[in-house]
UniProtKB/TrEMBL annotation:
Pfam families: SUFU, SUFU_C. GO terms for cellular component: cytoplasm; nucleus. It comes from Rotaria sordida. Residues 276-387 form the Suppressor of fused C-terminal domain. This is Suppressor of fused homolog. Residues 43-229 form the Suppressor of fused-like domain.
Amino acid sequence: MTEASNRSYVGLDAIVQTCSKIYPDQLNPTQAASVVKYWLGGSECLDYISIYHNQGNETSPAHWHYVTFGFSDLHGDNRVHKVSSKDDPNLISGYGFELTFRLRKPAEISNSVQDIPLWPCKLLQYLAKYVFKTGTQFHAGHHIPFGHVLPNLYSSNGDTRIHDLLITNDRQLKSFRTNLGSVEFLQLVGCFENELEAAQECNVAQIIDLFSTSRKTGGSLLVTDMTRQESVFDIIPNAKQLTREKIEKEGSQLGRVLARCAWNAESVSANDTNFRPISSIDLTFDLDAAKIFIKILRTRLRRGKWFIFDSLNDQSICFISMDANNQGIMVNSNQQIMVLGIREAQILLLPDQIDLCTDRMSHITNLKDEHTLPLKYEIPFHKNTKMIISIISSKEFNNDTIE
């Protein structure tokens, strides 16, 4: 075997070896493979999804364990992912992660190939298309508000209360490094809408910790049960009170989310390589993102912190309070809006502007659907500077591959 052909499997082999440490008796697991690989012109971005049978443990039920192959660099020869300099100590392989998902296996179901649900493979390929299109990297602590998409992938009638996803580190598969860079395994964990809302107010890690304490919510391995009918706040009666007390005491620890949002400003060049001040910026949110904005005004910005929205078209909106302290902050009381090309916008909100946003927009927290949209708000700043916020239907985000 030549050196070149040896190298072309280094990333793939590393994932296989990592999985074999957990499943030494399943060296040839069931695989959902792309018929035509992405690098040969196929539409599915992931080469493979391996499906393992996990017996669970004392806190987690038996389940199928889905593991992706393709977010990271499998081959190291530029066929999918550009290979960076190996001298970089922070080098990541491809996007730097693979996704996993653990789905509860009903007791009456056997281990036969015919009984393995394939809809999670569609889910993982769905997310892969989004990542490959936008270049977005998922991280532990992110969440994905899926709305109707996840239930419809699960069944034709959408009969489940699991609508959204939280992202954490897989509890068994450990990160590794090859000469192509580092790779971590990020696990998708299904959740109810009220569990997602709680994660948005505090942080994902706190809700994940609650899930791990009960077998009904997945236990230590965080197994998703699509038939679950009780939320973690029903299962653990004092959980909601403890969460609220922690938020009131410490504020939200959630500093960044992926959301349907965008920003636009006149006379901004995509080629700008330095931050520059502007006097007006137009922000667009869907209803879910707007509700998060209202929450972080209270739980983050009023407490002297910052918050970042990452958009589905590779933009970011960073809201900053006067007392926030971060090396990358470019705004100040004289220049409250700064932008870097068309990618990053930083907006400093002073206390009176935080109060104004809250007063004018707090009513949207009670909106249950998008029938009253669009909505528009203008928030004046000092020195003829202003921020305009529009709230539109999620379907109007035409770059949204999640929909």
